[in-house]
Amino acid sequence: MLTISVVNELLKTKDYDVIVVGGGGAGISCAIRAHDEGAKVLLVEAADRVGGSTRLSGGVFYAAGTSVQDEAGVVDSSDAMVNYYSALNQHRVQPALVRALAENAAPTLEWLISLGVSFPASDLYVGGVDGVARSHKPTGLGEAIVERLDAALSDRAIDVALKTRVEELLTDENGDVIGIRADEDLVHSNAVVVATGGFGNNRYYLDKYYPDATKAGRATWCISADTCVGDGLVLGQQVEAAIEGHNRGLLLVSPGFQRHLESRVPSWLIYVNRKGRRFVNEKAPYAVMSGVVASQDGGSCFAFFDEESRLQGDVEELNRPNWEASMVAEAAQKGNIARADSIEELAITMGIRASTLKNTIEEYNGFCDAGVDKSFFKIGELRHIKTPPFYCVEMRPEIIALTSTGLLIDSEAQVRSVDNLPIRGLFAAGEVTGGVMGERYVGSGNAVANAITFGRIAGASAARYCAS
Q1: How many Cα atoms within 13 Å fall on the side-chain side of residue 294?
Q2: Which CATH architecture is the domain 16-248+404-467 placed in?
Q3: Which pTM value belongs to this model?
Q4: Element of type H or E holding 452
Q5: Distance, C-alpha 445 to centroid of its chain
Q6: Per-residue confidence at 263, pLDDT binned at 50, 70, 90?
Q7: With the CA atoms of 432, 438, 440 and 442 taken in that order, what torsion angle do they form, in degrees rounded to the nearest 10?
């Protein structure tokens, strides 16, 4: 393991061809690709091990036209992915970046498979709203991806510095990036790739760049690695990099009484707004749910269920810790979930139009009798809301899963300046970048695909830059 030191006091000497700042999925993939393209590489990571947010993720990878899809009989293409990606975001994304992601995601997935990551065809699923199965779930989740990437990293002559935070980009008299400073140590290179992740753990940057993430009123929390505090934004702005994608990211809707990550809620919940009406299929993909909930009056909604559903919650669906019977009882005892013997009383307590709510629940109970949700066509077991006590909890978009404001890059992952010029010697990939991810998360695996795919693009581009 390398410890950064001042190995060169003459600024003319280049210690490395490429320095990669950040050792998550984007950074490791970048370092491997740059090395394989012939570059001498240093990978610098602030944590005590590599993996970043990718290690903590489900590892799902969003791609079109893959061998896994072929095996599952899914006909798909990068063109179809581009069209869906652009349409869902109302074309408020950078077309060249979307095209680069769509065309390179499938080859990147095949590369991961070649490293030993398993993506069973049986685990391929529809993770977006267009009905196409593009979400590839790996055996072993994000941890397995990082294990294989780390093994590939260890097999190569790539220097790795852990527990090292980069504080400054070095530039020459022309403004070209020529290295990094970590504490008082300088390390020089021909190119630097910033892959430091997002800023979900930095309240100042959330207020500035992703204000929607702080609207919940309760204590928001972030599922990213602890090191994701916006270092890349700091480094980029030192060299006048452009910032793209204001107020973009992904929030997950949560009841807020437990810090458990759940992307889907049990099928027996119903969501109503302050008018007392259902407004969404409660099983809609998490990729769009936060936006739908945020659009309601007050930017939130209310989940209703009854005592029978609470008692059966433990056995109805797996991995729903927020909704286990004991958890709900404890939250109700603490006052974090409202509980009453009548729907009308609950409505008054929560500030919901009582007469409308009563009618909404009666209609829903009729759907339960028929076995079909005739309003929103929710798939799953429909349960009556008849047995008191009744429960209600406010649901808000408040779990920060992703921040998508970041350094503007082009399709070769080179960072652009505020004057829209390429910054020589500077590249970026993953969550630290802006312009790839739009206002709507296209589906499960969008973030992991972005990180690893553009990590490889950045590695190749940085190596070519060094050779030019």
Answers
A1: 21
A2: 3-Layer(bba) Sandwich (3.50)
A3: 0.92
A4: helix 446-467
A5: 8
A6: low
A7: -80
